[in-house]
RNA sequence: GCCGACGUAGCUCAACGGUAGAGCAAUCGCUUCGUAAGCGAUAGGUUAUCGGUUCAAAUCCGAUCGUCGGCUCCA
């Protein structure tokens, strides 16, 4: 892939703002005005965004009381909660949060009604004379929009609206954390002190939310990565650089083989390109200009300047243009597990999902425009095969179109191809207007994991720009030169990121076909060790990943140890099993134990693995 | 990069100006055990690094490195 977003997408869940709905706000006001029956029904409990937005006001009220010097700025509802940014010399401490929480509880208990009124721009500016942020906001409100002030108790805020009727509606809330945040998200602006909170209709919802956070924490791939000895990031080596330990590398190998198999079946040709190439290549491709700040710095050797490869496409293009291509050769599909290095600011590095070096399951297709649809269909099909195998059954497609003003004739061709590819496979999709890359439309593939979080994995992008920059061509049936279209595609995205998501999806309990250790064999006492060794040898002979535990521990200890390692099968061999020539199967997630012959077990596990379970 | 919190044994944590300690893991014994922690012993640390304050620093101060939570939500 050639552009930054496909490889490091943010989880779709997370920090998305929830817009306020002015039309649904101020029910009490309307109710008072009209006094009709309908308003009794309308007097339902507030929506979560309304509730949370109100909680943000309550927080600001509490801050005004306890820290009068702090200037409130903005405080919207967000997914799962709300935040409010304040301008204040010193940051809020955890103790401050506790005090604020207590004050907020009083404000909630007092059940202040939320009252709003429309004011003129000048009135608003005067009302917040000491607060340049609010003044700036008041100045920026478009003329067409009403300017409104909302009051609870002794606290009035400039606000568009969209609240609960009164503060008493907030039945369950909690302040979560403090963070620095730039005014309007721009690092050139002053840094504000942000307080994050969460708010819910009742205690049970809040508790459920906190439980979800705990569940997510228990699945955190950074924690599991260490506990299960899958990978590490080494301080001595530098941030954002991943060391795959043997157990992680087993899983990576399985992922790679799976992808490789699909690529081979669909006519991709594997290629391999260098990690360090002349900077000149990235001048031609435009990466230096457009992507330079995400590239590692120049490397000088014998007067020549080299760069670490941030993307694989220029390399694949060089292979394409290494000889004359005929229309009969197209489409040409080059694939590579291409390792790329990108500079990410230290503060944004995160486990396996945001790194500085990673390997993409990358491929570039060179084709004629009329071949686009077919190639898209193939790609989407392959993506489904991949997601399915790795347990992501809930997929979502997003077609990102270029903004209307930038759209060109070729974009229409490409979009049309993407739509037809999806529609002919009966795949529903969302459209993101204006979300396309600057060089063309793209299709993003998202999945939901086991606890409902959404992640963007694959992307397929159409590119008319790079072929032009490199002057790519093929000889058509008319003996004239024509320009091919390129498709960039990565389905898993980056293997590091994919692995991280996979760890969280399975909570580290990988199905047998992926598990680094599929079977542990252990005897009850040392007397049966010889038999356990024999069983181990037979399982290894069958091609399974087996570990023999001959340690001098009680069975309960060994079971506990391997259970915490989330091994799918523990085979216990005691006196009885030696006599019968069987093994006792302790299967992860299955309460009953069974005694079966070694042959039966081999057969069973073989089938399980073949079924990719 | 910026704001904040935090870096003590492999891991989880204690000691919060006065001799660095526990549990787990590891190693070695004893135990030979039937499905999530047997018993004992041993070893393990320039308290992230560098500098400062002090009679004395893991502890206070500063810098550096690293980790973690945030930093496109717009009244």
Protein model, in words:
By secondary structure, this protein is α+β, with helices and mostly antiparallel strands. The chain has an eight-stranded mixed beta sheet. Strands 1, 2, 3, 7 and 8 form a five-stranded antiparallel beta sheet that branches. Helix 9 packs across helix 17. It is globular and about 85 Å long. It binds one RNA strand of 75 nucleotides through strand 2, helix 7, strand 5, strand 7 and strand 8.
Identify the notable features of this structure and list them briefly.
single chain; 613 residues; Threonyl-tRNA Synthetase, Chain A, domain 2; BirA Bifunctional Protein, domain 2; 8-stranded mixed sheet; 5-stranded antiparallel sheet; 21 helices; 28 strands; 25% strand; RNA-binding
Per DSSP, what share of the residues sits in E-state strands of 2 or more residues? 15-25%
Largest sheet: 8 strands, mixed
* Category from helices, strands and their pairing: alpha+beta
Across the major sheet, the strand order is 11-15-16-23-20-19-17-18
Q: List unreliable stretches of 5+ residues.
A: 1-42
Overall 3D form? globular
- What is the CA-based Rg, rounded? 30 Å
CATH topology of the largest domain: BirA Bifunctional Protein, domain 2
CATH class of the largest domain: Alpha Beta
Instruction: Tell how many strands the DSSP assignment holds.
Output: 28
